[in-house]
């Protein structure tokens, strides 16, 4: 079965700092016209850092939900930036911990119905302590949580962030 | 540390069929003004159905990535709809399998930096075979895959959808 849809015309309806939104004229596999709403995003890179059986999580306010969340450190790719570099940079900026290297774990599609964002998940290795340099409009606090406690918070719905759930579950599955 | 941001003014910049986009005037914890880009969405409900050690996945074309994906069945909530009902409905419509009940597994935040969407993940129970009724502009094919094969496809990056990864990993962790 052919499932392929075609773009007839891209129509940008919003160009923001974080996202660009399109409402494209497209064509279904059977040739019928349709509209497709798409959120373009440069991509997000996140990083799992485990130290003595504890996971480093950042607490921050997430405006879309109007609530605080606990997540692994993450940030948006700069134009043309290697996501591995973004992950290492965000870990250092948000938490002060400086990785010697990061290893790719997953590339995930957070919500493929309308977003074109890819979220890269890395694991940090050879980490040294350094200085915190958050972005000007970023307020975060970082702390370590035992892996079992994080899994229990996921189970209880206290941690809902998709990339964080995947990174920590996969850590437990590798055991 | 107070992390709370405040809405000064909501500004809707795009009102689509699937998403609504805002570029709000907001206030940082220190009182400084900022802009916050938000994608509003009615919410998505998805459903894990396991039959004889195999997971039911749907193959579909995802326009934002211009590629086919394998995902657990899912769909958008109708206004005011209980997500459990959406999950049961989407399973039946997309695959023909009719659950007697669905059990809540997780509520996840797919990409909390800009989206307010909540994705609900359910597990289907008491499933009977029925008829397929996809939406008019929806082209999907459904098939069963052994749990180990799905985990291997996740490992190899062949399955990238966040809700699918979380549902299947959690299945293995429960064992």
Automatic annotation (TrEMBL), chains A, B:
Entry GO CC: cytosol
GO MF annotation terms: hydrolase activity
BP GO terms, sorted: nucleoside phosphate metabolic process; ribose phosphate metabolic process
Start and end residues of each Nudix hydrolase domain: 39-167
InterPro entries with a match to the protein in the record: NUDIX_hydrolase-like_dom_sf, NUDIX_hydrolase_CS, NUDIX_hydrolase_dom
Domain of life: Bacteria
Cofactors, names only: Mg(2+)
Keywords associated with the record: Hydrolase
One Pfam assignment: NUDIX
Protein name (Swiss-Prot/TrEMBL): NUDIX hydrolase
UniProt source species: Candidatus Borkfalkia faecavium
